[in-house]
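Reminder to self: tokens first, then the designed residues, so the page reads top to bottom the way the pipeline ran.
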């Protein structure tokens, strides 16, 4: 039976569990950790000797996990870009201003008049010092 038709080589949960992939991977890694400066990915790539189906399922799971995390990252990036574009659209719909530039000349007269009135009220009325320093 070839690998393509043999059920132990199929990427299914049953094949993964039947080959005791988790237990064999944990035992293998405990053994490998005894040697100094061992990297998981490098050692896993070399380990097709004793338990080929467990190694195969482990590497397939790592590849699927990588694809899954890449899909999550792409989704986050696309979501952020969509949200940024949506902020501009929502702001335009919520506050429909055709010309957001404000001509200062239209309000300058009123601004000067208000500031002059406030300033004049302080100049012409003596301050009651009793408010600030009671005796």
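Designed residues (135 positions):
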């Amino acid at each position: 039976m070839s690998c393509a038709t043999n059920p132990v080589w199929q990427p299914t949960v049953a094949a993964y569990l039947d080959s005791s992939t988790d237990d064999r991977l944990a035992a293998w890694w405990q053994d490998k950790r005894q040697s100094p400066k061992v990297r998981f990915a490098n050692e896993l790539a070399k380990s097709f000797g004793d338990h080929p189906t467990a190694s195969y399922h482990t590497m397939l799971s790592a590849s699927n996990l990588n694809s899954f995390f890449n899909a999550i990252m792409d989704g986050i990036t696309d979501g952020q870009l969509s949200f940024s574009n949506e902020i501009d659209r929502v702001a335009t719909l919520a506050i429909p201003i055709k010309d957001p530039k404000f001509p200062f000349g239209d309000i300058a007269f009123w601004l000067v008049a208000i500031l002059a009135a406030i300033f004049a009220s302080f100049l012409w009325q003596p301050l009651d010092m009793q408010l600030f320093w009671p005796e």
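The radius of gyration is 37 Å.
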